[in-house]
Design goal:
16 helices, globular, Amino acid/polyamine transporter I, mainly alpha, 0% strand
């Protein structure tokens, strides 16, 4: 029963875990390194960039609240079941879009891990990509429980390091940050497009993390968890963006803005700590994306009366996905992947997720009787 799914759940599992999981999927290679922030927010300037980030936060919160509430109403805790309830037979359109998404983001993560290993330790770029891939397979092989624990502990590391990052940035070049904001013009019109684009291709994370919603105990839990998820996901990015404004507008041309800022701080110990944190962020993002596919396959297998996927099967699925996706990065590169591919994804997910969610999904939520995915797709 849907109503029993979250029995015995803690307040952390009900209200914070969904936000931590959403942040985990979103942060990835571009957010964590600052490359996405440079692409979508820096062109709008300091104040325009902040305005765009706040707009994206509101969009994330609203869409996450609707998604979580609808998932709980359907009793749908993998994306296949969710979109069968939302789109009926048209759910395969999302599956195609999601596969494109996974190929692109894992390529970005592979490129980012390779760049970090090369910049920090002087490794060949392939070494960082391989290490990340092996780590993702190791975590996802053990299912939802292991992934949830990773979300929890990596989130603690991440928020701590980003907070320390802002403190050290203020101490190292706080005067330049103040000048960057003081001398900046008011927001111009392009901040709206940046905020909507960034929000649109990232909000698919609300569907990727459906397995962790089993802890919700009511529709009120679902809505509150969704509203909280937006600010939890954007907070580290805002801290990072503020620090980047010390070197506006030149910072926008850096492939790894994080590495550039860390070199300005001239603190080798923190440089290594920050890069370790970025690797952990890549791990949780990649694991979230691969775990969603494992859960989708396992759900389909169980619906046919078979046993759920074993750890060995999950590891094989993860290894196949990562082998095919992550090394696309070597052919395309981090900057081009983020600049071109993500804009395409934004339009794709607006069409197959956000618009149907706001229209059909809201209508289904307002109906008084529960609707199962099987009923909705019939």
């Amino acid at each position: 029963m849907v109503g029993d799914a979250g029995s015995g759940s803690s307040w952390f599992q009900r209200f914070l875990l969904p936000g931590f999981a959403l942040k985990a999927v979103i942060i990835g290679g571009g957010y964590a390194t600052g490359r996405e922030l440079a692409e979508y927010f820096v062109p709008a300037g300091p104040w325009g960039g902040l305005a765009a980030m706040l707009l994206a936060t509101v969009i994330w919160s609203v869409v996450a609240a609707l998604t979580f509430a609808l998932a709980r109403k359907f009793g749908a805790y993998d994306y296949r079941a969710f979109f069968r309830g939302l789109l009926g037979p048209g759910w395969v359109a999302f599956e195609a879009a999601y596969l494109i998404f996974v190929i692109l983001i894992l390529a970005v993560f592979g490129a980012a891990a390779g760049a970090i290993g090369a910049a920090t330790f002087g490794w060949p770029e392939v070494a960082g990509s391989v290490l990340l891939g092996v780590s993702i397979v190791a975590v996802t092989a053990w299912g939802t429980g292991a992934v949830e624990q990773m979300f929890k502990y990596v989130s603690i590391l991440l928020y701590t390091v980003y907070g320390l990052f802002l403190i050290l940035a203020l101490a190292s070049f706080g005067g330049l940050i103040g000048q960057g904001f003081a001398n900046a013009p008011p927001p111009s019109g392009n901040w709206i497009a940046g905020g909507i684009t960034y929000a649109s291709y990232n909000i698919v994370g609300a569907v990727v993390i459906l397995p962790v919603l089993r802890h919700l105990t009511s529709q009120r839990d679902a809505v509150l968890a969704g509203l909280i998820a937006g600010p939890l996901s954007m907070l580290p990015a805002i801290l990072f963006f503020v620090a980047m404004m010390a070197f506006y507008p030149a910072i926008g041309a850096e492939t790894l803005p994080s590495d550039f800022l860390l070199r300005q701080m001239a603190m080798p110990w923190f440089h290594i700590l920050f890069q370790v944190m970025i690797f952990a962020a890549l791990l949780e993002s990649g694991a979230g994306a691969v775990h969603a596919i494992n859960e989708r396959i396992s759900g389909a297998v169980e619906s046919r009366g078979r046993e759920p996927l074993s750890p060995q099967a999950r590891a094989i699925v993860g290894a196949v996905i990562l082998t095919g996706c992550m090394f696309v990065a070597g052919e395309i590169g981090l900057v081009d992947l983020i600049a071109s591919g993500y804009r395409f994804l934004a339009w794709l997910f607006l069409a197959v997720f956000v618009v149907p969610l706001i229209t059909i999904g809201t209508w289904r939520l307002l109906r008084g009787n529960p609707v199962s995915p099987m009923e909705a797709s019939s």
